[in-house]
Design goal:
4 strands; 2 helices; about 25% helix
Amino acid sequence: GLPMILGDETRLIQVMENLVGNALRHTPIGGQIRMSAMLDQSMKSGEKLCIRFSVSDSGEGISEKEIPYIFEEFHRVDKSRHTDENQSGLGLAIVKAIVLGHGGKVWVDSTLGQGSDFHFCIPVAS
């Protein structure tokens, strides 16, 4: 029942895969991960309404001092945990670039020890 958005399906799937992958990595066994999409009447991109996509988890959360940097290239919240060679620290920077390229916005709400809510908003098609 949501309005249509226009976008590159492959890239928007990449955004969701990245956010869900991060949630899986940072949520302990028995934790919860939720995905949702809704018409967001409070968010506007220019004069257009947006569809807000969210990935929420009950994981470790992000400290308030790290949040302003979370979408920067090569930024890692806990450098000691990222020994996997396949984790470049580019995932959230790529998410931001794709979302901005679609005329949208991306942000995170998080409390250390209580989980994170990653959101991105894509304008509704005219």
